[in-house]
Amino acid sequence: MSKPKGVYDNAATGDTSFRRTWDREEYAQKAAERQAREAKERKGRYEAKLAGKKYIPKTEADTDGGETEFDDSKMIEARRDRIRLDENLNKVQIVPLGTTGGRRGKGAGYYCEACDLNFTNSLEYVEHLNSKQHLNATGQTDVVERATLEMVKERLTWLKKRKHEQDEAEEFDLAKRLEERKKIEEQERLERKERKKVKKEEARQKKAHITSEASEQPGEADDDAAVMARMMGFGGFSSTKTRQ
Amino acid sequence: MSRTDLPDAKAMLDSRGLYDGPTIHSMNPLLLMEKIIRERIIDSMYWKEQAWGLNAATLLDRAVEVQFIGGQYANQKPTPFICLILKMLQLNPEREILLEYLQDEDFKYLRVLAAFYIRLAWPAAEVYKTLEPLMADYRKIKLRTQAGYKLTFVDEFIDDLLTKERVCDIALPRMPTRAQLEDMDELEPREPLVSDVESDEEGEEGEMMEE
To answer: From CA A235, how far away is CA A223, in angstroms rounded?
Structure first.
């Protein structure tokens, strides 16, 4: 008869094998990297202070490139679309319990994924999107490229072209549009007719069904109840509204 | 000029130290607009969302969407027009760029915007020289005030800019009158835009007399 095996009996792995194990080398490397990074930042801050400037942490691209002040691709561009503040309007969202205090974590309101912050009003949210904190988190710098005359001219010609195209598209033929409208109305009329027909047919079938049922099982008690119910003003528990 | 612009007016309005950026009329350009309306603009949604991160080229996108001019409307809300004026004060676009805006024929609100900025920022004699030719532009523009919409015209608006002290709820910088500048020999007498109409009228009058 074999002994039942307990949790602690597994000799192959030892009695503490259930604990989490750690890759010490990986973490040592991570720590070294962090220390190097912090040392570099301290040095940067110190140098900026000596030069009487404000310290701006360099992004990865900058450190690779060497002396460049900032990366052009990281400059801010004007918003191309409106911020969709009413995206979640009239939607039900499940909000984790206990996130009502403070801004960390997703809660009710506007949520910024890059910074893991939640805002309860639109103005605060937009202000956050403009803030340095958010720009840093999304890898942007807080500068805009200054436009040259050429850029302005180019933009203006493009806008003009767009405007003229729109104007051309807006021109229309009245007769053609009337014709189209007529077709659409005719189609709608036919559809309405069809719907009415179907409805009538359904009603007729229902009526025939009820009468046949009533003739099959005439219960006296039921009849009494029905009469009483009608007197009281209701015929049953289902809705009296006919479904569309 | 630096290669970059700022996304908003925060740094330029930082009052902790002396301002050392570009100046207009030897002052911080943003201070050309009174504090109360300036702060309303900076707190407005339009400024934060639409006017953020614009430069002189992308400003055009917003300028062509402008539907009306004016200072404040409804419950003292700043109009997009006045927000863009503040943006231009912040960007301080070069002279050629402004003339490019002004000379454009397709977008009347862009022209009006540039004219307003020029009135705010340029020296008096140049303002007269640059804006007076626009008096030949008779296109309609909408003016929105706290009381509602009003119809006005480009030439009328330019005339307001040259003669009035307050336009679009903003106190314009003081400017000598045209007559004063002519006396100081800074301006030539103005050539009327409608010189040939006069002779026609004379002809008509002559005909009338004959009858």
So the answer is: 12
Specify the pTM.
0.66
H/E run at residue B108: helix B108-121
CA–CA min distance A59, chain B (Å): 18
Nearest to A144 among B4, B48, B61 (CB): B4
Report H helices in A51-121: 60-65
Residue B71 within a domain: yes
**For residue B2, is it within any domain?**
no
Confidence (pLDDT) at A161? 92
Q: How far apart, in Å, are the Cα atoms of A225 and each of A219, A229, A236, B189?
A: 10, 6, 11, 104
Chain B (53-82) residues lying within 8 Å, Cβ to Cβ, of chain A: 53-58, 60-61, 64
- Count of domains forming chain B: 2
- Are both B121 and B208 inside the same structural domain? no
For B93-135, the pLDDT digits (tens) are 999 999 999 998 889 999 999 999 999 999 999 999 999 999 9
Indicate if B131 and B202 belong to the same structural domain.
no
Q: Residue B197: which domain range?
A: 176-211
pLDDT of the residue at A143: 84
Same domain, residue pair B148 and B84: yes
Q: Do residues B141 and B112 lie in contact, with contact meaning Cβ atoms separated by under 8 Å? A: yes
Instruction: Spell out the residues 6+ positions from residue A167 whose beta carbon is closer than 8 angstroms to its own.
Output: none
> How would DSSP label each residue in A197-215?
HHHHHHHHHHHHHHHHHHH
